[in-house]
Amino acid sequence: MKIEFADRVKRLPPYIFAELEKTIAEKKRQGIDLISLSIGDPDLPPSPFVLEELRNESSNPRNHNYSFSQGEPDFKRAVAEWYSKRFRVEVDADKEVMALIGSKEGIANIPRAFVNPGDRVLVPDPAYPVYANGGTLLSEGVPVTMPLLEECGFKPNLEAITEREAKMIFLNYPNNPTAAVMDKDSLRHVIDFAQENNMIVCYDNAYSEVTFDGYKAPSILEVEGAKDVAIEFHSCSKTFNMTGDRIGFAVGNSQLITGLVKIKSQIDSGPPVYVQKVAVKALGTYAEDGEPPEYVKQVNRAYAERRDILVDELNSLGFKCKKPLATFYVWLKCGGDSMKFVSKLLEAGVVVTPGIGFGRYGEGYVRVSITQPKERIREAIERITRAL
How far is the CA of 40 from the CAs of 190, 222, 368, in angstroms? Predict the structure, then answer.
């Protein structure tokens, strides 16, 4: 029997990290100590409060039944209350909020509800690959590249976009991989652009709580009229270091939420009830004025210290690198072939992510993560110094 992949799978681009992963696996088999500054997974544990709640809620037999497709009522209310406190945005918990098995799942599924075969979708480049691949291509849409260039602050130049017939536009700020940020005025231009061109805005705001130096990331729903065209994706993964617990949420236009519910009700049964209940408690730790709990502040202080060490040391090596205001990434201009640069560092025992893996406009850069203790970051810098 000849087994072939479906055409939609064949259209997926080659996995550029495949050879790199083989090399990493071989070095690990050889017992070589690798310092990974590549993965976007927090090394810091969830707060003791979250772990205690997980123990309590998971030990309750009633929390092991199926969830509602849109999420548990108390979870949706908690999300609505968090939006009110954190962004001063009022949302209808019943119609404008839903639970996700991590924000990535919602981002991948939203095109299924609204993109027809051949519909064009504006996707940033460089970017998290799920927008173009897991979302657009697997919905048989056509990704249209929006370059994110350094001279534009790694934000899309909306005036330069000639594609005005697109069904949907994906945006992500604070940004992975560039760590660029958006202000509310820029988001207002996005909403105006979407309204003028009848586009759905899918805004990935998963890093909104990982911020430094007084910067507070806005929600796109703070912009007047945003609920007419936008849906925003959040996650507890980065905020509460719960990446493996797979709990996120979508908030926004009620028709967009309804479409996402229609898709998800056919393919999954929502996040575990006990994880939703833990997220309710975690979201509830935000103060009425929107201030995060001390645990979140403490984690951000740790990331800021690591960021400062990494950026200062990279600059001392001759790189020109700015301290990002958000995320746990540093977008480093390597000045050449990013795969060759990564391979060179790998020989020294340091793993970073090649920019080309995020799209062709990521070439010439590498993404460096600060999800390692300060001591390991300093050791990585020593190895990089020897390698270069």
Answer: 27, 27, 9
Q: pLDDT tens, 142-193?
A: 999 999 999 999 999 999 998 889 999 999 999 999 999 999 999 999 999 9
Q: Provide the phi-psi class of 335: left if phi over 0, else alpha when psi is between -120 and 50, else beta.
A: left
List residues bridging with 252 in a β-sheet: 231
120-125 β-sheet, strand order: 97-100, 248-252, 230-235, 200-204, 168-172, 120-125, 142-147
Q: What is the pLDDT of residues 255-311, one digit of tens each?
A: 999 999 999 999 998 999 999 999 999 999 999 999 999 999 999 999 999 999 999
- In what side-by-side order are the strands of the sheet with 353-354? 329-333, 365-369, 353-354
CATH class of segment(s) 7-46+293-387: alpha beta
Which pTM does this prediction carry? 0.95
Residues forming CATH 3.40.640.10 domain(s) in the chain: 48-283
Q: Are 192 and 182 in contact (CB under 8 A)?
A: no
Find the radius of gyration of the CA atoms of the chain. Answer: 21
Question: Is beta strand 350-351 parallel, antiparallel or unpaired with respect to 329-333?
Answer: unpaired
Instruction: Identify the burial level of 133 via C-beta atoms within 10 angstroms of its C-beta, where 0-12 means exposed, 13-18 middle and 19 or more buried.
Output: middle
Closest CA to 127 of 153, 157, 154, 152: 154
* Distance in angstroms (rounded) separating the CA atoms of residues 380 and 388: 12
The answer to whether 159 and 147 are in contact (CB under 8 A) is no
Amino acid identity at 118 = G
* Separation between Cα atoms, residue 208 and residue 223, nearest integer Å: 16
What are 77's two structure tokens?
A: 């209310």
Give me the CATH code for the 48-283 domain, please.
3.40.640.10
Dihedral angle over CA of 310, 314, 316, 319, nearest 10: -150
> Around Cβ 250, how many Cβ atoms within 10 Å?
29
CA distances from 335 to 131, 313, 341, 364 (A): 26, 17, 9, 5
Which helix (H) or strand (E) covers residue 36, if one does?
A: strand 35-36
Beta bridge partners of 326: 211
